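note to self: dont lose this again. the chain is below, predicted strucutre after it. 494 aa total, dont forget to put it in the shared folder this time
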Amino acid sequence: MAAPRNLLFLFSDQHCAQTAGCYGDSLAETPSLDRLASEGVTFDAAYCPSPLCTPSRMSTMTARQPYRNGVWGNQDILHSGIPTFAHSLGAAGLGPILIGRLHSVGPDQLLGYTEREVGDHHANWTGVPRVHMGPLEGTASPDRRSLLHSGVGQSAYEVKDEDVTEAALNRLDGLAADLSAGRRERFAMTVGLMLPHAPFVAQAQDYSRFEGRVGLAHPRAPAPEADHPWIAAWREATDSRDVTEAEELRSRAAYYGLVSAMDRMIGRILDRLEALGLKDDTLVVYSSDHGEQIGAHGLWWKHTFYEASARVPMILRWPGELPTDERRDQVVNLTDLTATMIDAMGAPALPDACGVSFLDVAKDASARWIDRTFSEYCQASRMDWAPPGTTQNRMIRDGRYKLNYYHGYRPQLFDLADDPLEENDLAGHPRYAAVRDGLTAEVLRGWDPEEIGRRLEAGLAAKELMADWARATEPPSAYMWPMQAEHNRLNAAE
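---
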């Protein structure tokens, strides 16, 4: 099997897999992703290595789980000695290109990419003030303002993605010319999008298509006495216990509008690839760094292991090599996707990787595979977006079962075959004690929550010193998109 000539990796931010037509959502308007799925292979049980941006992205880049990278939060810096997906592609002579989102913290803003355009919207350093988002200040974070200030308008993230899309189209034009003239033999390009990440604010034409059509989320939040104690603490920490119906309906309609806007951008990129005659020679991959709960279980944003947060969309199209309009129910991870893209491109495998190539599975549903994967959410105390104290949480999905381990709390256990909405926690049922105990042992195999807690707390002083240094010295940032407060607006109800 010859490697594909080219790779186009489309990587969005915070896209809940369920909100796409090709994943069974009759309301979502995603014709571009639906077409890609009809022309390729769709994975129905793909998971992120962490339901948080930077740790998920750094694990995807390295094909290592967060505890192997030491990147658990958005303020953690990936060690520059750890090779990445881009280093592997570069070693194979592909000259990897990045357009848009990376979300790397620290001095290395390439992580092996040889070219980068547009960049990120925030500074490379913690401690440096972020650009004020005007009427949408605070709405990009797990903060009640995200739900209060939602609806019709425009966020800087969508403006940025339009620039990313234009840059991707122009770069494809240049790559096609280079290929035609013999200046380049192959290419590998990653397009990093921000959408449909909150703020939950969509352009009027997108919002209006979903207003009144997207109802309340299901399942609803449990009664307080039935809530899991860590989840209850999370609700308290993010002031999301008593979200009104108006906030929920407005935020959900806007989210669907953002998914639609993202799909249009992806469609433009795929159309240009085809118009340039590159479709048949290119492996196209679409996925997202994590999901979005959009009200399911009474939760918002990400940070948990419920399916809406931890499961991600994943579609691969490789004309002539992968089947068309097929689905896979094997349990895979973004770390496995990285290994798969490296395998397909004939690039050297990453050393010490956790991810395993599922290329054989993509080609043949009967290929052997271990249906097991993990996801982590760990945070030190005094950090954003976690209840008080140190958080050491880990999920295992093994076949039909998912166990969520919360250090210091009781676990959750779900049978996703019988209970896909995760409404019936089986962890306390005697009949499932053996399953619970067996999966707990697997979660803890090689993963010591006490040691991780010590590492997290020991790293706090370094983070705080680095932030103080950045505040005092104001170091320059590279590869930055010039975000302005004026890019954000929130319209009156329309």
